[in-house]
Amino acid sequence: MFSPEGPSLRELAVQALSSVEHGYDLLAPKFDHTPFRTPDPLLDAVATALRRIGPFDDGLDLCCGTGAGLDVLSRVCRTSVTGLDFSAGMLDVARRRAGADGPPVSLVRADARALPFGAAFDLVVSFGALGHFLPRELPVLFAQAHSVLRPGGSFAFPVLAPPRPSTPAYWTLLGFDAVMRVRNAVWRPPFVMYYRAFRLGDVQRELDRAGFETRTQALEEFGRRDDGSPRVRLVVARRVPDPRPLSPGPGAQPADGSVNS
């Protein structure tokens, strides 16, 4: 299916009836030959935009999959690149494809909702993974991304404009989400992948609540729709630098007015 190297319909069906983690373990060897893999033109456009925002030292690819986003980080980060995913199969593929050029690459198996890092990164990116989280999980996910960024660091990811109801793509995604909801209602474990649940307005609101300063910029490489809105945006959420406490001047007294002897 998709290409001679891609998964068969039967393999996709087995994946869809598994958990998210095990399903991607099964799909990993052929994932790069499916439409689910972020296309290279989008990765290149994000890398170009991030170069204008940088420079960055240490970068993290959240839910890195087979490592396509690691190539972006290798182009914009100077010191280190880390990929994190909870699928061992996807990480195995990412490990084999990691190039020798650029900063050193580390791969970590963990849950994006419980990151095993302190504030160690200047840049966190994610490509095509946020549809695997339910809307109610976004606050935890964004709080985790905020916690691993150094003050002033950025969390960046591309968002595609939703298709119009008059287009076949709209009904295809609507049908896909409906099938997934029926599947999860009657089959366990659930497989979370909802394309239409990830809405830009909701995302911006939750990023603001997590403590980010958020802006978007058009990726003009993909043009604009008839109404002038961009087809693809890059969301850039910046962790606000912590305010520095004012140093007490000579003769300053404690806030309670007491005087130390």
UniProtKB/TrEMBL annotation:
Pfam families from the entry? Methyltransf_25
Q: Which positions fall inside the Methyltransferase domain?
A: 60-153
The alphabetized UniProt keywords are: Methyltransferase, Transferase
Stretches the record annotates as Disordered: 237-261
Tell me which CDD domains the record gives.
AdoMet_MTases
Q: What InterPro entries has UniProt attached to this entry?
A: Methyltransf_25 (IPR041698), SAM-dependent_MTases_sf (IPR029063)
Q: Which SUPFAM superfamilies match?
A: S-adenosyl-L-methionine-dependent methyltransferases
User: What superkingdom does the record give?
Assistant: Bacteria
In alphabetical order, the GO MF annotations are: methyltransferase activity
Query: In its keyword annotation, does this UniProt entry include Transferase?
Result: yes
Q: Which GO terms describe its biological process?
A: methylation
Name by which UniProt lists this protein: SAM-dependent methyltransferase
Give the species this sequence originates from: Streptomyces mangrovisoli
